[in-house]
Design a protein that fits this description.
single chain; 367 residues; alpha+beta; FAD/NAD(P)-binding domain; 8-stranded mixed beta sheet; 8 helices
């Protein structure tokens, strides 16, 4: 498709908003359709950790993620300049308390692999009391793995910034529910939209729209009223602790990964367990009250990989979803790849992310 066409993006989460922004940058007219508005779904959470996967074994998808983490600050600076909204990004590194000797051996192996695959990134193992003001030494008897690549951002603020930047660059937003997709059109509860390309970036709803296997994982997280300063992201025992420099302060803790649930929007004892673990690890959280409890559904493809690219058998319909846990880290690169594909240029994508490779069966989108 030649530039200056019309693109319909279904979904105003982080993937959809980056797709819209990157398509606008290539000269396309863009309409974003979402039933809840920007950041209303999983992208409106509170945690915002931008951490790389373990570097061993090294794969093309891990190389893509590292490149995305390195290029994201410049892209966010552009969004902030247009929108006037700060995204809260800062590279703070990550600290992982090591509970025992096997955990320390795994950390040593990670440090060796990082030296090969994360050039310029310092990775080291610190003594248990090296970060006592943030990590209780009792939680790290075998030391602390510390790397300096991880960053954090404010998810909700980033979605607001992206939405305003898209609008200021001429993007159109429509509050509606997508009902069906076909090449060149989207049927919604607000009527039919026509375009030259359609991008399905609707989070967990993407799979039903595309007629592909996949679903949702429930996550719960919380924001606590603490101000520990510029603290590294802490990850331990399925718990993430992220200190944000919001005007009102706050440390986010999360997130659960739940395969089944009764109420997608409700928080419960599983979140209480996350908060308790975070308080045991991080002294500044011991008496900090909970400001906000959050729950939502996050998309997970059957392949367990992000799905980015043309939908098999569906013409000019593309998919951008399934980035469970890494959507904010790779969102800009994913959006740029979608825009490149629509424009007919090299998307610079790992082949494993392409829907045709990950899910070779033909979708149920009507040709």
């Amino acid at each position: 498709m030649a530039p200056q066409g019309r693109v319909i993006v279904i979904g105003a989460g982080v993937f959809g908003l980056w797709c819209a922004w990157e398509c606008l940058a290539r000269g396309f007219a863009v309409t974003v359709i979402d039933r809840g508005g920007p950041g209303a779904g999983a992208s409106g959470g509170v945690v915002g950790a931008l951490a790389p996967h373990r570097p061993e074994p090294w794969t093309a998808e891990k190389a893509f993620q590292i490149a995305a983490l390195r290029s994201l600050p410049r892209a966010l600076a552009g969004i902030e300049a247009v929108s006037g909204i700060a995204c809260g990004w800062r590279r703070v590194g990550r600290a992982q308390p090591l509970a025992d000797a096997p955990a320390r051996r795994r950390a040593e192996a990670l440090a060796e692999a990082a030296a090969r695959h994360w050039p310029g990134v310092r990775v080291r193992i610190l003594p248990p009391g090296a970060m006592a003001h943030w990590i209780d030494p009792a939680a790290a008897p075998a030391g602390i793995l510390h790397e300096e690549l991880t960053a954090r951002l404010d998810p909700a603020a980033t979605c607001r910034a992206l939405a305003r930047a898209v609008a200021r660059r001429g993007g159109r937003f429509l509050r509606a529910r997508a009902l069906a997709v076909a090449p060149g059109r989207v049927d919604s509860d607000a009527g039919r939209l026509s375009g030259d390309a359609v991008v399905i970036a609707a989070g967990a709803d993407s799979f039903a729209l595309a007629g592909l296997p996949g679903g949702a994982v429930k996550g719960q997280a919380a924001l606590l009223a603490a101000r520990p300063g510029v603290m590294p992201v802490i990850s331990a025992r399925e718990t993430w602790i992220v200190a944000h420099q919001r005007p009102g302060g706050g440390v986010a803790v999360g997130s659960t990964r739940e395969e089944s649930w009764h109420d997608a929007a409700a928080t419960d004892a599983r979140l209480d367990g996350v908060i308790a673990r975070a308080r045991a690890i991080c002294p500044p959280l011991r008496t900090a009250p909970v400001l906000r409890r959050w729950a939502g559904l996050r998309p997970r493809a059957a392949s367990r990989k992000p799905l980015i690219g043309p939908l098999p058998g569906a013409g000019r319909v593309l998919l951008c979803t399934g980035g469970l846990g890494i959507s904010f880290a790779i969102g800009q690169r994913a959006g740029a790849a979608i825009a490149a594909l629509i424009a007919g240029t090299d998307p610079d994508l790992p082949e494993i992310f392409l829907p045709a490779r990950a899910i070779p069966s033909v979708s149920r989108v009507t040709p």
